[in-house]
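Today's session is about reading a structure prediction critically. Students often jump straight to the picture, but the first step is always the sequence itself: look for stretches that repeat, for charged clusters, for runs of hydrophobic residues. Only then move on to the predicted structure, which in these notes is written as discrete structure tokens rather than atom positions. Here is the chain we will use throughout the hour.
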Amino acid sequence: MNKYIKLSFSGILLVGLITGCSQRQNAIENNPYKNTQQCYKKVKMPDQYKTTTKKVLVSKARTKRVFVRKAQYGWSSKKVMVRPVTYSYQYIPAQYKTVKKRIMAKPSYYTWKKGQGKVTRIDHATGEVLCRVKIPAVYKMVSRKVLVRAGHKVKKAHPAIYKQQKSRKLISPAQYKIETIPARYITKKQRVKIKSGNTVSKPIACKNMKTPHKAKISKQPHNKNKHFYTKSRKDTKEHLGKLLFNDKSLSRNKTQSCASCHDSKRAFIDSRVNQTSANNRVPGAVSLGQDGRSLGDINTPSAAYKAFNPNFHFDKASKGFKGGLFLDGRVEDLVEQAGQPFINPVEMQNTKENVVAEVKKKYAYTLRSLYGDHIFYDNNKAYLAITDAIAAFERTDVFSPFDSKFDRHLRGTATLTRAEQRGLSLFKNKKKGNCAACHPVPVRYDSKTKSLLTNFTYHNLGTPKNRRVRSMNNKGLKFVDKGVLANPKVNNPKFKGAFRTSGLRNVAVTAPYMHNGVFKDLSTVVYFYNTRDVKGAKNPETGKAWRQAEVDKTKNIDKMGNLKLSNQDVADIVSFLKTLTDKRYEHLIR
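Below is the predicted structure for this chain, in token form.
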């Protein structure tokens, strides 16, 4: 009977196996993805992490009372103690332990194997998938130290001190001290979730696609900064430029950034007080380098509104040069200007190679996503991309809000006071002040309401040397700054000592003034334009006559020097200039 039962059971198994194999073969033959050209669709892959080691403090340092020397004895008829035992407190250094820490390495790329009846494959290079797949959450066992019990104090005795007589006697009672025993920890393992599962998309229509070469896979962009992996406004040139603008690690000693000399809270000027300051309230006439010792020779101009400066060129109508950046116009545009401070031997004192290497450490992913995967193959191209990102940030409304009281007046939303109106009239009066000859003022509701109040031309204003600065920056009083004549594109000696006409926006809060920071007050500047060539006129800051110009032969005598303005006129013009201050800096006006 048992024999027949065994034979029947074997027969059933054999039939089931044949049926299963037949169904499996049919499934393989009916697979719609088999022997067809497949295509891919981009999907976001979970981030990958790696484990690094880090030293952490185990316990705080404490002091312990230790024995210094043994008691000394002298021999007489009996053994007596010469000097008592002494103790000292000894510092025990802190203890450290190496622990493991998980950090992001680079985006993960997965390959899904072919299964029965479907194709589930993701391309390494493009991250594209054929079918809908649920990726399970990933877990990892990590170790952490947990407290076993709190530290407690014990009372510990020091040995008593004895002396030798006929019998050994105790000199002083035993001494005790309270010692703290550190808390004890034990290592336990805990399972932590790394990332939740992601769902990838369904199959799509086939297209002729070329798979990238495998060499490109190993050069996928990565960055330790997690926030760069999110698709948001942070993946823009403007945001990258903001990070670079405020990054001190791009200077040689990692002590200075672009923002150090262009403070956003002070209209983007160097607001630091240093040894070249006239007093403790006025910033330095020139800026300190990143080494804390080097001094420049030109007052750091505001970085605000510089995106509207035209390129440096010769203007046939005015028969003079216009535009450019820096007060001597030595660079063409904002991109070229952004790259100069990094390699300047007085400012950030770095090299292009070091700047690119530092940026690659921190912002490689974003730079590659904005400028291409091959951006770091050429240092010059990478450096140009860095300066382009900074220039993009400087073109934003953060630098150029155009929301001063004067702008609001032009749009009809604000009203000037009587003093400000008188100052505006004098500013435009061709017979008396005529400041508008070099600082043109836009008309109400005109399309040019975004004027910077400058014509970008070059003039020698007859500014005297800043003796305080020249005695500190090792140039000496004999040194003469040629201004725009030092520009290789300029060879006409009549431009010696000429500097670009600065825009007047935020002029009331950007002291000190002139190209060398020689004047500390705005009213002094207006008074200088008014009485520079008047006999007996004095500098209100020093109480002495105006000093001779650094380059006296080419100074402008047609539009300034004796404007015949009264003291009240000067005060009114200053009142008008204060209306050119951006709304967020109005509280800085004295």
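Discussion point for the tutorial: The chain has three domains: 47-220, 228-262+303-309+333-394, 405-588.
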